[in-house]
Hints:
The chain is mainly α.
Amino acid sequence: MGSSRSEKRRPPARRSTASLICFREEGWSSSIIFLLLRKLILDELENPKAKELYQRAIEMRDCVADSYCNLGILESQEKKYSKAIDCFTLCLKEEPRHFEAHYNLANLYAEVGNFPLAKVHYQMSIELEPEFPNSHFNLGLTLAMNKEIEESILSLMNYRRLAPREDRSHVEELIENLSRTVQ
Length: 183
């Protein structure tokens, strides 16, 4: 949880791949695929025109859910939380099982201290993509903040099981400290 542009915000490769697949599956021309690539590149370069292009895609009804989700990420990074929540919920209106929208909405709710809503959206993201370790880690932190310590430990253990070896060391101490609180 936090306000960095790290994979805690979104898994970068997934977003790009999902957007490209969306265009390819819909049979869009190479000019439309170029527009999408331009949006993604501008977004990654933190260019302000990325918002305009996502908005244009929404108006053209091209990959609407992904565009709303990406707009939500940009609004959140600018600390425009109500706009970000609006974008993520509009994404979910278009595609209720949109993993990135649930995950990013959970991150946003956790960041602003609404842990019950963060919990719901982390749980949904885990239902959609159970092998994504960061959802388990962030859910574990959220549960700890809710004083649901035993559930937090279980979620962190799932993270440890799924995370790459080099990312596991920091969670061991956290699990150990939480375990002491329930004894």
